[in-house]
Amino acid sequence: MPATIVILFIAITAAIVLLVGVRAQWTRSREGKILAFIALCVLPIAAMWGGFSEQIERAESTEFCLSCHVMTDFGRSLYVDDPSYLPARHFQNNRVPRDRACYTCHTDYAMFGTVRAKLRGLRHLQVQYLGTIPKPEEIKLYQPYNNRECLHCHLGARRFEEGSGHHKTPDLLQSVKSGQKSCLSSGCHDIVHDIDSLKDAAFWKESK
Amino acid sequence: MDRPPIETRIKWASRLIGAGLLIQMGTLFRIHPLAFVAFVVVGCPLIGAGVVLYLWSLVPVRSK
Which residues on chain B are in Cβ contact (under 8 Å) with A44? Predict the structure, then answer.
């Protein structure tokens, strides 16, 4: 649902709620009681749910993830002008939606993957506002990056299936698919965010 | 003239819910983790408290 509609719905609900409060004597009649129930119970819960859904959806946006200072360098790494940087290559070539770049790659494509991502997000908020914020170079993945996340998009794609790099040895493709060989840490696509090297990097400027 | 207790509670419930809704609406104008925190930590409890107060106002008071 577009954010404008959610905001409008909340605004209208707030107006009705406040009106019922100002005209509390309306609730003396039967119709007034029904109006009060809708205004003070049904509509606020619906508005809260709509707002919550919108907030959860926004939490998946690249803008949301990069709004914490500690993530700035990770965001910059998406603009490195070097195709060997895997996130930059994906981001700049629209292989991931740019407005959801972080979430697309850092969510488990498994049952409850979204729930896990949200719970981790809450933990990140707790650390950001109540805990000790780590240095960018101290930020690590919770577990080694799973090939499943890459295969979610690449599996079956001609470039992936037939690319010469994936047929250097007869069993390479199969071992990648089965997860025996990691896409990122087996020496093939091992330049990821590499924020330590950003000071020497050139950056892509998107033409408007 | 004294207002019936139920109307006083409805008035307070509407203030709480209204404040919660306005805060929630405000948080939707910006994409930021703090907006999310304000939505969940301030907006939701205010609305929850208002709805509970309204429902509580419906419970009939037993006369002594």
Answer: 17, 20-21, 47, 50-51
The conformation of residue A78, written as its DSSP 8-state character, comes to G
- A45: which chain B residues are within 8 Å (Cβ-Cβ)? 47, 51
Contact state of B14 with A18 under an 8 Å Cβ cutoff: yes
A63/B39 CB distance under 8 A: no
Sequence ranges of the domains in chain A? 3-58, 69-200
Which residue out of B7, B8, B21 would a mutagenesis test of the A interface target, given it has the greatest number of A Cβ atoms within 10 Å? B21
Chain A residues near residue B54 by CB distance under 8 angstroms: 36, 40-41
Q: What's this model's pTM, rounded to 2 decimal places? A: 0.84
Give one DSSP letter per residue of chain B, joined into a string: -PPPHHHHHHHHHHHHHHHHHHHHHHHTTS-SHHHHHHIIIIIHHHHHHHHHHHHHHHSPPPP-
The end-to-end CA distance of chain B, in Å, is: 23
Quote the CA–CA distance of A53 and A59 in Å, as a whole number: 10
CB of A70 closer than 8 Å to CB of B46: no
Q: What are phi and psi of A14, to 5 degrees?
A: -60, -40
Q: Enumerate the domain spans of chain B.
A: 5-56
Which residues of chain A fall short of a pLDDT of 70? none
**Which residue do the tokens 């250097």 mark?**
A168
Say if CB A68 and CB B35 are below 8 A apart: no
CA A32/CA A42 separation, integer angstroms:
14
Q: What is the pLDDT of residues B19-41, one digit of tens each?
A: 999 999 999 999 999 999 999 99
Name the residue with tokens 């429902």: B55
